[in-house]
């Protein structure tokens, strides 16, 4: 409580800097999600993986915030259905695209949401980014391209189109959260968003993929819990709370470090190789985020 009172008395600029710092921290944590997802896919299909992680997340958050949700449901159910659709649609397009393209291509194309977010924000009348933010966007985009480059030619395929669709849809999620979070209860918006995503995921999983059953290994259950609790519940609640104090563009730039951190974690944990261009790409992404803050 003392921390909250201290935060309320800070200047707008100070609140934005703190919010960006918190977003950066959870993005680094969120990068661990690819470890959970990569391992969970050994026992669970991609559509049921999406359903499982969102059902787990909303079940936990309902237990914690059910009184708050009952109080705010009527005012937020339409908005949360829209925001939840953007979140689910981005993840669905990325998951489906990954079946037909490489992880590096997917990381680059889905990360292009950092470019599209300022234009998505115009739907809700969000302010244009400042010059420093545009430079940060350019650096982050260059970094994503370097991260995806592995020396061979790139033939744009079926899966790449879905990853590009992910970038478009997720940019609307960033923009819509920036618009709606300051205008209502941010925690309720986050939980209801996850609830709608769970519903959309369950419908698709039931229609298109056989249920995996409950006799999964402890490791796979651990992966599902990590993806649901850490990378969905924690991440989206903090995103909605902090975007009350920062912009959609700052959020997009910060979230662009996720593939860079994912690549570094893959190198550290699994021994996946990172060439000098990939390391340079990681540096560009992180530099773009820092410059957009300092600028």
Note the main attributes of this structure:
single chain; 13 helices
Taking all residues together, what is the mean pLDDT? 83
Q: What is the H/E order? A: HHHHHHHHHHHHH
**Uncertain regions spanning at least 5 consecutive residues:** none
Measured as a percent range, the helix fraction is over 70%
Strand residue content = under 5%
Class per helix and strand makeup: mainly alpha
Q: How many distinct beta strands?
A: 0
Q: How many structural units, i.e. domains?
A: 1
What is the end-to-end distance? 32 Å
Explain the overall architecture.
- The protein contains 13 helices and no strands.
- The protein has helices spanning 2-8, 12-30, 33-40, 46-98, 103-111, 113-120, 131-148, 158-180, 186-208, 218-242, 248-255, 257-270, 276-294.
- By secondary structure, the protein is mainly α.
- Helix 12 packs antiparallel against helix 13.
- It has one domain (24-294).
- Helices cover 79% and strands 0% of the residues.
Topology record:
Blueprint: H1 2-8, H2 12-30, H3 33-40, H4 46-98, H5 103-111, H6 113-120, H7 131-148, H8 158-180, H9 186-208, H10 218-242, H11 248-255, H12 257-270, H13 276-294
Helix pairs in contact: 2-10, 2-11, 2-12, 3-10, 4-8, 4-9, 4-10, 5-7, 5-8, 6-8, 6-11, 7-12, 7-13, 8-11, 9-10, 12-13
Care to give the gist of this entry?
By secondary structure, the chain is mainly alpha-helical.
